[in-house]
Specification:
alpha/beta, Rossmann fold, six-stranded parallel beta sheet, binds adenosine monophosphate
Length: about 400
């Protein structure tokens, strides 16, 4: 697979796929522009090489229809401000008018094509659509790590229709950090896995157990494990059908010498409600009608101690319902503990990234991934279809 800086871009039409699926408020204002900023090294490199830069991305889920509030217009405006350069937004991503616009481009200019998902053919990986997208370019650069686990026309199908393909700087960085985390990382290696459900991250847990020295499990998923250990967990979120699997996981960890840490206390409430009365109890004393919504202070101390001598830390998923102030302390404390560790620290998953940002620790984590689904796929030991498609082009 080629990297962008190994490809001659001079005066060529360079089609760059980014993940500009940024959160918008009700007035279509961008709430968080980190995904746009993460694309700047690739765009700047292409501009420095005097390429004709054509940008493609999806935004939201318009389900194959034109939805005005999901136009990439705010993204084009924000990007233009970052670059100090005009970014023209085309009205569509394919068609005669777009073609004309591209054919008339001067080197060093940028055009952004309208939301790919206004066409249902994008998510169907439609061959004809991929061909139309690709036929306007000399070079295709995929820098959309956040979309790399999907099989779509703009990241998989398209690779057959552009002569030269490669990846951008963001994709390169993402793949390198996950490679570090999965292949012989500095030890002790600690993985922190949280979030709502075991089922979403079961494969991740199984795969990580092959590599890590210690696993910390927090968040809603911890309660399935606690139940498997025989604890009464009140009305906490639980996946009854995975209790046996969780039990086997605990046994497997013991056998393979991986130390597994679960919460020893938690913040409980009767409902997931900011106004709920809360209590901190040991996990042995969760009231029958109450649910565990965050890790407690003793667990925070325990988990922070586990990180103390770590040399690699991987974190995916919050420790509690951190969106609500009363249940956010555990996740924020974890963000501080990870940031304070002397390890190589890699965090992934949409929610983890938001929590770290809100805790003010973004600058103190070695790497925060921009892709939730894609990072989970890699942590499961799986392959990314977008990367596979690019690998295939370089073999041909
Ligand atoms: P995930 O997408 O799997 O990383 O899950 C993130 C979600 O898990 C967040 O929205 C949290 O509110 C939720 N979550 C974390 N801990 C709990 C818990 N103890 N009970 C219910 N939901 C939780």
């Amino acid at each position: 697979m080629k990297y962008i800086d190994q490809i001659d871009l001079k005066e060529k039409k360079v089609l760059c796929r980014f993940d500009f699926n940024v959160p918008l408020d009700d007035n279509s204002h961008i709430v968080d522009d980190r995904r746009i900023r993460a694309a700047l090294p690739t765009i700047n490199h292409a501009l420095d090489e005097n390429a004709k830069v054509i940008i493609i991305s999806h935004l939201g889920r318009p389900n194959g229809k034109v939805v005005d509030r999901l136009s990439l217009n705010p993204v084009a405006t924000r990007l233009s401000r970052f670059l100090g350069k005009r970014v023209v937004l085309a009205r569509d991503c394919i068609g005669g008018d777009v073609r004309k616009l591209i054919d008339n481009m001067e080197p060093g200019c940028i055009i952004m094509l309208e939301n790919l998902r206004f066409h249902k053919e994008e998510t169907e990986n439609n061959d004809d659509f991929a061909k139309k997208l690709g036929s306007c370019a000399d070079v295709y650069i995929d820098d959309a790590f956040g979309n790399a686990h999907r099989v779509h026309a703009s990241n998989v199908g398209i690779t057959k229709y552009v002569k030269e393909c490669g990846i951008g700087f963001l994709m390169k960085k993402e793949l390198n950090y996950f490679k570090k985390a999965l292949n012989n990382p500095p030890r002790p290696y600690v993985a922190i896995v949280g979030g709502a459900k075991v089922s979403d991250k079961l494969q991740v847990l199984i795969n990580l157990m092959k590599t890590v020295d210690k696993i910390i499990i927090g968040g809603g998923m911890a309660f399935t494990f606690l139940k498997a250990m025989g604890h009464e967990i009140g009305t906490s979120i639980v996946e009854e059908n995975l209790i046996d699997v969780a039990y086997n996981g605990i046994e497997m960890a013991k056998k393979s010498g991986v130390k597994l840490y679960l919460p020893v206390d938690c913040v409980i409430a009767e409902k997931v409600d900011p106004k709920s009365v809360t209590k901190i109890v040991p996990v042995q004393e969760i009231n029958p009608d109450w649910m565990g919504l965050d890790i407690g202070p003793a667990t925070i101390t325990l988990f922070a101690e586990v990180l103390h001598d770590a040399r690699t830390v991987l974190w995916n998923g919050p420790m509690g319902v951190f969106e609500i102030d009363a249940f956010s302390r555990g996740t924020f404390a974890m963000a501080h503990a990870v940031a304070n560790s002397h390890a190589l620290t890699i965090a992934g998953g949409g929610d983890t990234d938001v929590a770290i940002h809100e805790a003010g620790e973004s600058d103190y984590i070695t790497y925060i991934s921009t892709g939730g689904g894609a990072s989970l796929k890699l942590l499961e030991g799986g392959k990314l279809p977008a990367v596979e498609a690019l690998n295939k082009t370089s073999e041909e």
